[in-house]
Every structure is written in structure tokens, then in C-alpha cells.
Design a protein that fits this description.
Strand content: 25-35%
Largest sheet: 7 strands, mixed
Number of strands: 24
InterPro entries: AMP-bd_C, AMP-bd_C_sf, AMP-dep_synth/lig_dom, ANL_N_sf, MenE
Catalytic activity: 2-succinylbenzoate + ATP + CoA = 2-succinylbenzoyl-CoA + AMP + diphosphate
Number of domains: 3
Distance between the termini: 59 Å
Shape: globular
Number of helices: 13
CATH class of the largest domain: Alpha Beta
Family: Belongs to the ATP-dependent AMP-binding enzyme family. MenE subfamily.
GO molecular function: ATP binding; medium-chain fatty acid-CoA ligase activity; o-succinylbenzoate-CoA ligase activity
CATH architecture of the largest domain: 3-Layer(aba) Sandwich
Organism: Desulfitobacterium dehalogenans (strain ATCC 51507 / DSM 9161 / JW/IU-DC1)
Oligomer: single chain
Radius of gyration: 23 Å
Length: 451
């Protein structure tokens, strides 16, 4: 029996997806599966042009009932990028809400067709979904997640975050990103509601929070930064914040406002969270990204004398390997650099790609960025490596702020060693980000190192 059938029998008329109940969603999904069957009966792998909508979720669940591998297409990709992806993944059947591919409406106009007996279950080894990594540091890779990976994640998340009958998770992240899809799967598994929006709209998000219509929320730091000062009242019990870098100043400001921040660390390869914790319950661990979820093992690979090294992960929610690449060997190598404290909490110093080696000294950009974010006049900032003939690399600062360069240098001079100071400061109106709000440091590095 799949999760939807189970919840439809158990919860019935209880609300699940926006205005739809569990029973209504199951009926609509079964109907769509019947109409989809003629299109996909000879296909192992298909794709969804994954715009945030109720219909996209219904089609995703229907395709899962038909036991198809579903590639979730990033709607911000160009036509050429999508074409290359579909060719590489050998996908010939694609569905979309509009007329970009086979439209949902065209499918709904088809007659119902009887499906093969025995379909509808979620087989543990079945690849459920294929998603691209965030590609903040290079070319995106395709991650296949099996139902056993997804079930391990939702079980572990349930143990850490708990479940309440009134839970209603606001979904503003993209469905083609694991952070967005995981909200649907957690809510389905837990038998609770999810409020899906077309994307992150500040006014809509604030209205839903302040009218106490939602009590769970997942955001990347840039999204939280944009609304935090404007939140007046709420009934939030957990705000899951994850992303490339979570400024300490943002977390501290959230705690002062009584926002129940859960810092989290994870990736597509781990089916979302790998570590998390409620910061208000463990304020002394504010700089940490959390404690491993049940089932996750975190090790530090090749640690130095200070026990700092590459973070590697193992657990039932971790993928087997990227498509068209060799399976991972025991542990997933994250390319992130950090350490574990005596209580097992994980601390991240930076991405290996981001570390600046200047005259033999390691400079961790996140350390400098955290200091800058503590200044009230700094909206956004990023430190990247800039080539230097004498030192090999030196820090360069991209910043969104009205501060003058001299003010920035004076502020840093009392707080960090001289060799960590940025040798170049560039002011921008906004830092470049991907569709989920993660900073594109690769683009900044290319900008500052142009010949």
C-alpha cells in the first residue's frame, strides 16, 4: 500500500494539499494515473516540467503510482539545457502544466484506461525521483533517489521535528528542488497539511504566517532575511533554515524575535536534511548546523591537528551514486570542510572549493562573512578567492551595503587578522543566486578573476 492510500483511508476528509483532502487527492491521483497510462506504459523514466502547482503534485503522485522514475525539470533552465538533460537521461515523454511539453490538460482530456494489476505500491528499490544538484559550484549532477531513501528521510525527520494534528507546512521552495519536494513527502507520510504556493512571495508568505494559517516553514537564508523584520505575530513551531551559508547574525536576530529556528544541513544526495537542531533549545551550539538525524553517520575525513577535515556521510537516506557514475563507496564525500564537537554537533567552516589558500594560510570565507553580516548596514556579502602573483590567492569581497570601503576595512581590522582582509571590494546591488536563493560563488569568482 502506498502512503497516499494509507492516509486517505485513515484521514479521509482531513485537508492535505491546499483545499484538497486526502481522500480527494487520492481520487484525483487515481484518475490521472488512468489517463497517464497510455502515455507512459512503455516508459521507465519520464519527466515533469516542475512548476509549483497543485496539478504538478497530483501528476507526480500519479506517476509514482505507475512506478515511473520521474525527473523533475528545473523550470529556469534554457531550452537547450533541458534538451541536453532529456537526451542524457534518455527521456522521451515529458509533461508540463502549459504547452511546453505534453500539457496536463491534454492528458486530462484522454479517456480513462485500466492499469496493470499490482501497481500503486512504493517498492523500496524503485527510483522514485531524479533531481539535479544545486550546481552552485559547477555543473549540476543528476541524483536518483529511491523510495527507501525517501522513506528513511521522512521517518528520521518525523522523529526530530515531531508531528501535530494541526501541522500545516508552507511550501514556497521549488518542487524541482529536494527542499520543496521533501515537504510534500513529509506531509503525506505524516498525514498533515501542506500549503503550496507558486513560489516565494514576501507579502503572501507574511500574510500566511501572521494569520497563523501555517505553523511549519522551510526557507533558505536569503528568503528569511527578506521577511524577518516584518513578522509581527505567528504560531510557527519550526522554521527550517538550510542553504549554502546561514549567517550567525540572521539566526541571532530570529531568536530575538521568538522565531523557532531549526538550522539544517543537507543536500539532494541525502534526500534533504542530514543534520538539524532547534537553536533555541541549544543556544550554545548556535554556530553549528546541527546534530545528525537518526540513521545518519557523520565522519571527518583526513582530519588535521585541529580535527578539521572533509565531512563525509553515510545512512539509509543517502543516494547510491550519481546517474552514469560509479556508486559511492561506503561514505558520501560532501566536499564541505568542518568538524564535530565533543557532543557530536557538526560545524561547517566552508566548502572545499571556497577555501582560500594565501601564502600557505587557509582562509575560510564563512568566518569573514559572518563578521560582516553582524554589521547592521550589510545586506549581503560574499568572500571569494582572487588570483595574486605574490600570495597565490587573496580574498575579494562582494558586498551589498552603503558602507564605504574604508569603513568596511576599519570594521574588519579589529576583528580578524590582517591576512584575512579583502584585497579588493566590489559593491553590487544584489548578489547572484540560483532559483532556490543559494549564492552563486562560482559566478563571483569568475567575475573577479577575469583576465
Amino acid at each position: 500500500m502506498n502512503w497516499l492510500t494509507k492516509q486517505a483511508r485513515k484521514k479521509g476528509k482531513q485537508r492535505f494539499l491546499n483545499h484538497l483532502s486526502f481522500a480527494e487527492v487520492e481520487n484525483l491521483v487515481q484518475e490521472r494515473a488512468g489517463r497517464l497510462y497510455p502515455y507512459v506504459k512503455d516508459e521507465t523514466r519520464v519527466a515533469l516540467y516542475a512548476r509549483n502547482s497543485v496539478e504538478t503534485v497530483l501528476f507526480f503522485l500519479a506517476l509514482q503510482g505507475l512506478q515511473k522514475e520521474v525527473f523533475m525539470i528545473n523550470i529556469r533552465l534554457t531550452e537547450d539545457e533541458i534538451r541536453r538533460k532529456l537526451t542524457n537521461l534518455k527521456i522521451g515523454v515529458v509533461f508540463s502544466e502549459d504547452q511546453t511539453f505534453i500539457s496536463f490538460q491534454d492528458v486530462l482530456n484522454q479517456p480513462l484506461e485500466r492499469q496493470d494489476e499490482g501497481r500503486g505500491g512504493y517498492a523500496p528499490e524503485q527510483i522514485a525521483v531524479i533531481m539535479d544538484t544545486s550546481a552552485t559550484h559547477g555543473v549540476a549532477k543528476s541524483v536518483p533517489l529511491r523510495w527507501r531513501n525517501l522513506e528513511a528521510h521522512v521517518r528520521a525527520s518525523q522523529q526530530v521535528l515531531g508531528v501535530r494534528e494541526e501541522d500545516n507546512w508552507l511550501l514556497v521552495l521549488p518542487l524541482y528542488h529536494i527542499g520543496g519536494l521533501a515537504i510534500v513527502l513529509r506531509s503525506l507520510y505524516n498525514g498533515t497539511a501542506v500549503t503550496l504556493t507558486a513560489g516565494f512571495d514576501e507579502e503572501e508568505t507574511l500574510k500566511l504566517i501572521e494569520e497563523e494559517k501555517v505553523n511549519l516553514l522551510s526557507l533558505v537564508p536569503t528568503m528569511l532575511h527578506r521577511i524577518l523584520d516584518r513578522i509581527r505575530g505567528h504560531s510557527l513551531r519550526a522554521v527550517l533554515v538550510s542553504g549554502e551559508f546561514i549567517p550567525e547574525a540572521l539566526v541571532a536576530a530570529s531568536l530575538r524575535k521568538g522565531i523557532p529556528i531549526y538550522k539544517s544541513y543537507g543536500m539532494t544526495e541525502t534526500a534533504s536534511q542530514a543534520t538539524t537542531f532547534c537553536v533555541s533549545e541549544h543556544p550554545m551550539k548556535l554556530k553549528s548546523v546541527g546534530y545528525p538525524l537518526p540513521g545518519i553517520k557523520v565522519h571527518i575525513h583526513n582530519p588535521d591537528r585541529e580535527e578539521v577535515g572533509e565531512i563525509i556521510l553515510r545512512g539509509p537516506m543517502v543516494m547510491d551514486g550519481y546517474l552514469s557514475e560509479e556508486p559511492i563507496q561506503e561514505f558520501l564525500h560532501t566536499q564541505d570542510i568542518g568538524y564535530l564537537d565533543e557532543d557530536g554537533y557538526l560545524f561547517i567552516l566552508d566548502r572545499r572549493d571556497n577555501i582560500i589558500i594565501s601564502g600557505g594560510e587557509n582562509i575560510y570565507p564563512q568566518e569573514i562573512e559572518n563578521i560582516l553580516y553582524a554589521h547592521p548596514a550589510v545586506s549581503e556579502c560574499a568572500i571569494v578567492a582572487m588570483k595574486d602573483k605574490k600570495w597565490g590567492q587573496v580574498p575579494a569581497l562582494f558586498i551589498v551595503s552603503a558602507l564605504e570601503d574604508e569603513e568596511i576595512r576599519n570594521y574588519l581590522s579589529a576583528r580578524i587578522a590582517r591576512y584575512k582582509h579583502p584585497k579588493k571590494i566590489l559593491h553590487l546591488r544584489e548578489l547572484p543566486k540560483n532559483s532556490t536563493g543559494k549564492l552563486l560563488k562560482k559566478a563571483l569568482g569568475e567575475m573577479v578573476n577575469e583576465d
